[in-house]
Amino acid sequence: MGQGKQICAKWNHIQDAYEMDNTSGKFRILHKLTDYHVVPSKLASKKMKVSYAAQVLSHSMASMIHLLTQKGITVNNKKMEESATGTAEILSFFDTLFDSVNGTSLYGEGGKKLKCIVSQTSGHIQFWRDARRSLCNMYFMKDGTTEKCTPPSLINWRTTLAGLEHLLSCLKVVKFPKKQWTTEEICTLIDAFGEQKFVGPKGFQRCLYWSSIPNLEGYDTHLPKSDDFPGRPTAGVVAATSSSKEDLNTPLKDT
Fold first, then answer.
1. Does 91 fall in a domain?
2. Quick one: DSSP state of residue 22?
3. CB of 63 within 8 A of CB of 57?
4. Phi, psi of 193 (to 5 degrees)
5. What is the per-residue pLDDT across 66-97, written as a single tens digit (0 to 9) for each?
6. In this structure, is residue 52 part of a structural domain?
7. Beta bridge partners of 78
8. Residue 107 lies in a domain
9. 108: pLDDT confidence band, cut at 50, 70 and 90?
């Protein structure tokens, strides 16, 4: 990972850091974590949640393990193994990976450079390419065995990153309209989708979505058949889709 070096991460390092942090009372660093985040026997009894993964594979946990390892801190006769630095690096990698696909601000904040919108200079693309290579080389091993396994999550992350890069390349050729839609214009477009009226917020959302897409230039303009839209659109109202169904169904090659 990184410069071709092999790194090993162990779950018991995470559990040790959690237990050592628990002795700090109200001054805990990992205050969001509970036994259901970390203790294996209790993990199995709870439904899997993305929020749990994000809270464990976090910058706080990586920093805690790194600090305990580098400073050789002993808590209740427990000391972090030197090899735990590898665990800290892996946790930091996944924390950055989560940030890179969850940015909502214009610029990264709090030292998280990739927790922002994607741009030509944001560094997302290069990080995603490096991350895909690292994910390709990752595998899991059970304690006391030499059997390697690659869980679906690692494969799916590679697919997601490849898809995001592909989406960005497509968006580069799309021209978004500069005008702001008025309520009257939106209602006119929605009414144009036939005699059947769509009641409720979900129906309105679907109609608004398909009404707005024609303003993205660079796509073929034909209305796909869908159970969501039983009414026939009037002339001049079109929806944009991919020019080929094969484009949508063909999996991206992981290079």
1. yes
2. G
3. no
4. -85, 35
5. 999 999 999 988 999 999 999 999 999 999 99
6. yes
7. 75
8. yes
9. confident
Residue 133 pLDDT level (bands cut at 50, 70, 90): very high
Write down how long the chain is.
Answer: 255
Range 136-169 burial, b when 16+ CB lie within 10 A, else e: eebeeeeeeeeeeeeeeebeebbeebbebbeeee
Same domain? 127 vs 86: yes
Domain boundary among 142, 171, 200: 171
Q: Which of 118, 68, 122 is nearest to 91 (CA)?
A: 68
In a domain, 236, yes or no: yes
Q: What pLDDT digit, counting tens, does each position of 167-189 carry?
A: 888 777 665 555 555 666 666 65
Mean pLDDT score of the chain: 76
Q: Which domain holds residue 90?
A: 11-171
Same domain, 191 and 132: no
Q: Is the pTM higher than 0.85?
A: no
| Residue 45, both tokens | 């009894």
Per-residue exposure over 59-74, b if at least 16 CB sit within 10 Å of its own CB, e if not: bbbbbbbbebbeeeee
